[in-house]
Every structure is written in structure tokens, then in C-alpha cells.
Amino acid sequence: MMLCKLSLKNVKKSFKDYAIYFFTLILGVSIFYVFNALESQTVMMNVSEYTSSLIKMMMSMLSGVSVFVSFILGFLIVYASRFLMKRRNKEFGIYLTLGMGRRKISIILFLEILFMGIISLFIGLILGFILSQLMSILVANMFESDLTNFKFVFSLSACVKTIIYFGIMYLLVMIFNTLSVSRCKLIDLLNSSKKSEKIKLKNPYLCTVIFLISAFVLGAAYYIVCYKTYALREVTDIIIPIIMGSVATFFIFWSLSGLIFRIISSFKNHYYKGLNSFTLRQFSSKINTTVFGATIICLMLFITICLLSSCLTIKNSMNANIEKLTPADAEFSVVMNMEKYYDDFKSYGYSDSQIKNSNYTVIEDFALFDFDILSYFKDYIEVNIYTTPDLTFNHTLGSKLEIVKSKFPFLDYDDSEAIMKISDYNKVAKFYGIDEYSLKNDEYMIIADFDSMVEIRNIALKNKESINLFGHTLKPKYDACQDGFLEMSSQHINTGIILVPDDIVKEEYLYENHLIGNYKTTDKKEITKIENDIRKLEKNELVTTYLLPNGNTKLSIKEATVGLSAMVTFIGLYIGIIFLISSAAILGLKELSESSDNKERFKMLRKIGVDEKMINKALFRQIAIFFGLPLILAIIHSVFGIIFAINILEVFGNEELLPSIIMTAIFIILIYGGYFLITYWSSKNIIKDK
Amino acid sequence: MEPILKVKNIEKYYGSRFSLTKAIDDMSFEVLKGEFVAIMGASGSGKTTLLNVISTIDKVTVGKIYVGDEEVTKLKGNNLNKFRREKLGFIFQDFNLLDTLTSYENIALALSILNVKANEIDKRIKKIARELQITDVLDKYPYQMSGGQKQRVAAARAIITNPKLVLADEPTGALDSKSSKMLLEKFKYLNEEMKATILMVTHDAFTASYSNRVIFIKDGKIFKELYRGDNTRKEFFDRIIDVVTLLGGDLNDAL
């Protein structure tokens, strides 16, 4: 009972001293709950079958992310508790000298963590429950569902999951703490408050050299990711600049810790003003030992900033693109004349009868399934795509092939190009309400909207590469690709369609038939019913005999986009917030764990007559530098990281970055700034003379 | 001679209404300009409390204390800090040097919080370092120095602002006898050559024998005062020992 009382008292005491630790535990628990309880928030919304399958997928991804998150949180909790242990060494030393066995100390620790765990889980789950109700508003907003039948939901499964995951984490902490108590010697425990850390200044020349080298390496890494993006052919290639960047970050902090002091202390007038010398020394004495920590925190902040801003950008641009990219209600296509490429299609898994029966248009195909698609359409058009093995990507690039190949060796250059009659395309353009074009008899043009492909094609077009088609030689009308597309999609994915004069096209090269139409009805429910009927055709037994046309409809694209953007947003938010909390909490705890040393120092300052105002200013500056330095470097990293992300993600369209950067900044100011202020207030409290 | 420090009928109580401890019980004395006064007493006699109330770290319950013309018992808030950094110099038993700063920076801090210019700081530190023989250790950190060196650095920090009164709390408490002797010789030098007024608290008769006057306190009251007059240090030491014997066993453990 004695032990129980002792540990309860300790918990109470540390609750005051380590508000940050508790705050972080509670926040961790509640965020974990919120994201795992998302499913129960979506249950009450009335969404289509398709959307609910998307939500299921999102949930399984989120639970995968949760495992990762629990690793991060577990690391954070173990790390934080070791800080706290270190500070309490003397207390344990006293217990031991009083004759208390190590076993009993372990029991005290065990009980402490048990109490702390129960309290933090309890408060965290309550907070999580409240937050998840707010989350439903966000979820409903994303899936464009109404909240008319809103009710408070408590997810038991998420609650149990949170308790199990955090239970394991707390168990780990118990094991670590017990180990560290049973291993240490009494004399070390009692003397641990005596600082043995020696302050040594690093050689300034070495620091300068290392700083310059690491700045150079960092610059090179930035250059590779931002301006040599196309040279990164495989996922593994990106690892090299990441390692370069991380190592350079470490050495920049290492050398800066030596340099900053040298530089500022050489400005004597500034250095010997007020408490400047004290503040700077405080900082430099600490950064010597926290270079590694600062590196980790800087990198975590970097990931957070990139993750938050790019996930918000992706979401915004996906939603913005979609109206432009789905100008009609539905678009269907079916491949024709498959027999010509028999071997290819056979290997794709098409049956012999499907290949033999591939000479029907979309409308005819639907009719074979006893489905009258035209009866649902108010208006429609039919167009054709042609291909020939005599016109592949190789041929379009002409004399520029080798240059392009050396730069992008992983593209498939033997792909046949899609060819379209100019009149067919203009029909589509008129239907979609986009630009129409005209061609002379000896001219061709390319329409494309996939940016990196446009860039490659423009190399050849600029060079006026002519093509040979069906016995005619055509020269390009424009020296660049023109904007346009045939297939509806959520993104700009048209890699290029060759438009040619109608007369030269031979019907025997017909490859694909497209049907584009608008429904008679505008009611969402009726449209959903039509499309569900079409989807049901997949279960018809005729699908093995005949080809069922592929469809892209406005509604399905929209739902897919919403699902994808919700997934990206939630995963980004989840990881981003956890990283942000973790790094801020580590910084705060590190600062607070040193506050006992600081307390002595500030006491001395008070004795020689330093004002409270000056002391608070010095403390504020000290903590601000400590929090600010990793953030500044992380922001510099992020500028280039975001440029890289934009390059990679340009399929999603380059929507304006500013709003998402502002959102990210708000997140960082709220969470990181909040931790900064709490740290400042708590350490002000600790150094206060009582 | 004008008095630098006037202590008038001060009392200091600790504890609640029901268990009252009188740490200082109606004490009055004066310290004149240029004096070197030692206050002696056993543990619990109230000498540290006395130093704390004079240095405004603690407040008196009753009575008044003047430093120069200023009534320090009336000072509040930032005026207290201002008074402390401008009028007083401190030397503590455990040195109270900042472990992150070099000796030079420790001494400079006392001036930089008074907004003294950097080149003026440099001139004054060089001068005082020569006088206290700490020029060699100016670039060292506290952990690299001996106790005696640390205490001389602390003395330099206390004296560099030309304070009206230097307060020393058991300055030789953590020093070996050789370092103590050297430090006390420096105190004497500061007192005689630089005209510093020093009030030192000690329980060590040898340390006290370097002063001009010793005030003995017991149970919060002044028990006896000894003036050195024309005595040599040795003779003064013997007289102090006599009083210590008279005080009884209380101080014996401290000898």
C-alpha cells in the first residue's frame, strides 16, 4: 500500500511538472481513436454502394497507417519516459539508500505507468470521442453527404483497438524502465545531478569546412530532386538524395553548433549586452549534445510540411479538375478488330470468342447484352480510333528518338499511336465544349494534356518531324501539342492522339469505337440506378462471349475522386499531425528535463540582481532558438521537397499551392507553436523562485 | 565616517502563528564606509537570515535596513533587482558561478546587465583580474578551476561594479586552508586598497580574524562585538577564540 501511495503521489507531481508529457499522451490517444473511428462516422451517411466500398478501402489503409503511427508513438513514449527517468535518478538513489529493493522500485514504476496509462487513456478517449463528432462534419463534407440523420456515435472497436495498442506501448515503457533501474549503480544515481558534461568548443576551421561541405551536399540533393526529377527512374533512386539530405542536415547542425557561437561572440558589443552571453552559452552548451535529436526533429518536420501541403494540394486540384475533365455524362468504349493483334489480346486474357466477336460498336455490344443504351440518352455521338503498327511512338519522334530515349529509357517506344479523324475529334470537341481544330491535306497535329508527355512530344514537333501514314507524308501543323482529350477521367492523362485529315484514314485500321452521351435525366438517384444496371451486366453470363464496353461516367469519376482525395487527405492529416506532435513533444520534454539545471542558473542570475523581465526574455529566446532552428532548416528542405512533389504529382494538375501552404502553416503554428508556448510557460514556472 | 549599512531593530519570524521561530530577535548595528566586518555565530544563530534580509533576498518582519540613504526594506519588484545589481556585490560559499560561462564572461555578466559598453567591460576585467591574480584563468570554465580560483573569480564579479557593500556568505567554507588564506589576503587588499566595504558571514575564527570588527550573534541577538583596534591578526584571533569559548560549545564544532 505504501508503494501504491508513493506512486500515486509521484504521478500527481509529474502531472504538474510534465504537463507536456501528459498532454502528448492524451493527444496521441485521442488522435489514434479519431482516425480509427472514422468508419463508424461514415456508417450513418447515405452514400452509394461504390462510395462505401471506397470507404472500406480507406479504412483498411488507415488501419495500416495506424500500425506505423503506433510505432512512432511507441518510440516517442519510450524516449520521453527515459527523459523523465533520468531526472528522477536522485529520487531512486534515495530509495535505494533507504534500503528499498530494486524490485520494489520497479513496482513503484510499474504502478506509476499503470496509473498514468489509465488516466491518459480515459481522458484521451473522451477527447477523441468529442473530436470524432467534429470529424463527421469533415467526412460528410468530403463525401458530399448530408448530415440530416446525424447522431453521436461511439466506436467500440476503435476504443478497444486504442486500448490494446497503447497498452502494448505502456508495457514496453514498463520493461524499459525496469531494465534501466535494475542496471544502474547507486553511486551514479546519487551523483547524476552533478553535471559532468564538459563544454568544449569545436575547432572553428573544421566547423567551417564541414559546414561548407554539407551545405554543398544539401544543395546537390536539392538540385537532384528538383531539377533532375526525370533522371530518377526508380523508387530506389530517390533514396540517394534523401540520405544525402539527412546526413547533410546532421552535419549542418553539428557545425552550426560550433559556428553560431564563434560568430556571435565575436561581435563583442552585442555579445556583452544584457543576458545575451548567457543565452547564447545556454544554447551552445545544449546543442552540442542535441545535434542528433535536432536532425531527427528537423526531418520529421520536413516530412510533415511536405505531407500536409501536398496532400491538401492533391485534394484541391483533384476536385478542381473534375468539372473540366468530365464535360459529358458518360463515355463508353470498346476495342474492335482484335483478331489483328490476336497474340497480344490472347495474352491479356481475352477469350477466343471475345476476340472473334470484336467487330461490334458500343451500341451494338450493349444490344447483344439486351441493353438499349440509347434509350437513356438525350443526345450522343460516336467516334472511332485507328491504329497501325506502321505508326508507333518511335515514328512520331522521328530523328529525335535517340535523344528522347537516352533521357527516358523506360518509356515504351513500340506502342502504336492512337489516330483520329479530325472531323471525329471536332465532333467530340463540340460535344465537350472545348477547342475545335482544322487541318490541311498534308498536315497532322497531336492533342495531349499529360504534361510530361506533352514535353517529350514537343521536342519532336518543334523539329517539324513529319510522319508517314497510309502512304501519305504529313507534316505537323503546330510546333507543340494542343490541349484536348477523348476519354473522361479525373486527371489529365491523355498522352497523345494524332489527328489527321479524314480522307487518308483507311477503315480497315479501325481499333476502338467510342460512344459519348448525356442522360435524359438529371436526377442523381435515377442516374445511379442506370449505372448500377450497367454494372450488373458484368454478372451476365454473356461476358465471356462478347466484349462489354468500358465506361467512364461523370458520377463514377466524381465518386472515385472524392474517395481518393478523402483517403489522401485523411492519411496525410493522420501522419502529419502525429509527426508534428511527436517532434514538438520531444523538443518540449528535452527543454523541460533540463529545467532543473536551468533553475540553478536562473537563481544565480536573480541573486546578482537580474530583472524578472530580462530573465523571462532570456528564457523565451533560449526556447525559441531551440524550437526555431530545426523548423527553419525543415522549411528550407520543404521548399525543395514540395517542388519535387509537384513534379511527381503533376498528373493531378497543378492547382495553386498557396491555400494548402497556408493551411499547413496554420497546423504548424497551432500545434508546434502551442507546444512552444506550453514549454515556455512550464519552464517559467519551474525556474520561478518559490 | 558615514555609515553605509544601518540595521535598526529588525526582527524576522518563521512559521505560523502557533509555532513561531524567531530567527532574528531585535537586532541593530551599523557598518561604516571602508569597514571589513565579520559576523560570527553557530548554525541556527540567524547569521544567514541576517545576510539574506540585508541582501533583499528575504524580507524582515519588523524593522528597517538602510544601505546608504536608501531604505531597502521598502523596495519592491524591479527596484529590488536594480538595487541588488547596482549597490551590492555577492560572494557565496558555493561560488555561484554559471557553469556554462567562462570566468571572463561570468565577471562580464555583472557589468553587461548594467549596460556597460563592451570595451569598458574589457578594461575593467583586465584590471581586476591583475589585482586578484586570475588573469590566467579568465578563459577557463568553472569546472576547470580550483575552488580558490573560483572564489576569486566570484570576488571579482562582486567587486567589479564598485558596489557600496560587498556581502560574503561563508566565502572560505568550501576552500582548503591555503586557498582560504590567499582569498582572505585578497579581501584585505580589496578593503584596504580599493576601499571596499565588506560584510562577511562566517563561523570560522581564522577567517574572521582578517576583519576589523567581529559581531557575534546567538539566538538571533547580538551577543558581543569585538574591534580589532591596533591588534595584529594573531592577537585579534586569540581574542576571537576567547569569545568563542565564552559562547560555549555551540561554535566548538566549527573550529
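qc> The mean pLDDT of chain B is 86.
qc> done
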